Design the sequence.
């Protein structure tokens, strides 16, 4: 899927590949049931920010 996103930068594709499996609806529902709703509502945005910053750091080092 990410290989077909040729109009996007490599950094955008990296974030897509990292965040996609970590933050999806099924996983949020599972986390909410296992760890509680508060955890699930905090985990998704934090994961998005960390993945974005990590991808930017990798892009800065590699490119």
Sequence:
């Amino acid at each position: 899927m990410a290989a077909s996103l040729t109009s996007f930068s490599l950094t955008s594709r990296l974030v897509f590949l990292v965040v996609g499996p970590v933050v999806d609806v099924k996983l949020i529902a599972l986390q909410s049931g296992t760890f509680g709703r508060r955890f699930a509502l905090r985990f998704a945005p934090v994961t998005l920010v960390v993945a974005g910053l990590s991808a930017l750091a990798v892009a800065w080092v590699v490119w």
Observations:
- The mean pLDDT is 84.
- The two ends are 22 Å apart (CA to CA).
- Residues 9-62 form one domain.
